[in-house]
Each structure stands twice: as C-alpha cells, then as structure tokens.
Amino acid sequence: MEATSTIEQREQLHAMWASVARGWAEHADFIDARSGELTERMLHVTRLEPGKRVLELACGPGGLGLAAAERVAPSGQVVLSDVAPQMTEIAAARAQARGLANVSTAVVDIEQIAEPDGSYDAVLCREGLMFAADPGRATSEMARVLGPGGRVAVAVWGPRDRNPWLGIVLDSVSAQMGMPIPPPGVPGPFSLSDSARLAALLVGAGLDDVTVEDVTVPMSAPSFEQWWARTTALAGPLANLLAALPPDATDAIRERAREAVRPYETAGGLELPGVTLLASAQR
User: Fold this and answer.
1) Does the N-terminal or the C-terminal CB of the chain have fewer CB atoms within 10 Å?
2) Beta carbons of 91 and 80 less than 8 angstroms apart
3) From edge to edge, which strands make up the β-sheet containing 120-126?
C-alpha cells in the first residue's frame, strides 16, 4: 500500500499545477520560443514521422505536443495530457487555433497512465518528470505504454548552478525564508539534475539505447521586471508561496534577486544561462 505522505504529496502537486495554469497560458508562446531547440531535438530523437501515435505527458500549454502533431500528420495522432484539466483545456484551445485535427487531450497522472500496454510509438515529457512523487514509477509507466521499438524523450532541468535563471529566485526565497526551497524530499525543478540518476531511471524501466545529453535553453528578458514576472509565474511551487507572503517579504526577495542577476545584465537586458538534460531511450 502506498504511504499516506506520498499520496498527499502527489495531491498537493496536482492542485499546485492547476492553480498556476493561467500563468502558463499567458506565457505559452514564450515557452515555445524559448524551448524551440529542445523541442526539435526531442522530436528528432523519437524519430517522429507521419502515422506515429504520440503521448505527451505533463503537457502544460502543449507546445511540444502541438509540434509533434504537425510532424506526424495527417494520419498520426497525438494525445496531449496533463494531471491538471486546466492545462489540457489550454492545450486543446491552442490545438484548435492551429487547426490541428489530429490532436486530442486527456487528464493523465504521469505515475498512473490510464492507457493499455503498447498504445504509443512515442512518449514525450518536457520538464515534468522531476515533479513526480515517484519518478521510477512514472518512467515504468512510460515504458509500459510504448509499443515494441517505441521511443521516449524526457527533458528535465540540469544542475541548479547551470540554471541561474531559476536558481537565483530559489536562492533568494530560501534566504528570506531561512530554509531551503524546495524543502528536502519534495520534488522540485532540480530533483533529477544528475544525468546518471536520470539514465538509471530509464534503464530501470526496462528501456534500451539510453542516452542523456545537454541542451542549452537560455532565458533572455528585456528587463529585470519581465524576467521576474515570467519566472515566478512559471515556477509552479514558487508562484503560490510568493503570493502567500506579506509584501515586505516579497520586496526583500525581489531585491536579493535583483542584485544576484546583475552579472547577467547586457545592453539589451538580461541573458541568463539554462541547461536541460534530455534523456532518450527505446522500448
């Protein structure tokens, strides 16, 4: 039987993503543009072509899956799934706006994929696995729903010190709170930032041809204010935490962050490094 703490943690994570869906909708086009190189790489390593059946997990506003739908059209099908129905509603609206008739949506828990064995030719998950309460269970589910020869591509954020675009915000909040954010043992954006551990999850799920590579995903912003607004809106766990703090505490965090990003200031605004780990494997 599953531990109560794990169940509660999973429920809290689900509720958190539902609560920040509006921010993800607002910045959906920015997310797609920023992740353009990563998206192309994920579609390449899964060898998508017309006719393939694709599942995107933790889809958010669905940019990766929408790109996949264009790649597998006209006969291929893509399911955009997320644990938060608010996210799949956003993804569905974006698919409709693009006139993509080969897209459907589903509310799916990454650790309990309600699909038969071997249902898909490819499974995609961009920046979602690191928030799973049990990532081993999630990768096993990915492997289970892949058909023979099917491929999976999973992207998670690399080490915190190589992602100052987000690490600076977490450091500033941690300093203000007097405790690490996220707390130890709680899934967070850098919980799978070790490439060896990420590879071991896919190997443990029974997948073959496992590779992990770095993909550069920098973050540019014309001003501190825009970087702050985007980052805090998209970093799900932080959005709710900051909203609950008194104004003076939030102001103090912002000023810490403002000082910390000064080394990344350029004539055109902020240029902050970012690195994603892209793991791929075959069934």
Assistant:
1) N
2) yes
3) 103-107, 77-82, 53-57, 120-126, 146-157, 275-282, 208-216
Q: What is the pTM of this model?
A: 0.92
Interhelix angle 164-177/236-244, rounded to 10 degrees, is: 30
Give the pLDDT confidence of 115-160 residue by residue, as tens digits: 999 999 999 999 999 999 999 999 999 999 999 999 999 999 999 9
pLDDT tens digit sequence for 231-278: 988 876 677 788 888 999 999 999 999 999 999 999 999 999 999 999
- Given a contact cutoff of 8 angstroms between Cβ atoms, the answer to whether 129 and 102 are in contact is no
Mean pLDDT, rounded, of the chain: 92
**Domains of the chain by range and CATH?**
4-282 (3.40.50.150)
Amino acid at 117: D
Which residues is 280 bridged to in the sheet?
153, 211
Token output for 91:
């993804």
Tokens 């694709």, residue located: 54
Q: How far is CA 247 from the centre of its chain?
A: 29
> Do 54 and 78 meet the contact criterion of CB atoms below 8 Å apart?
yes
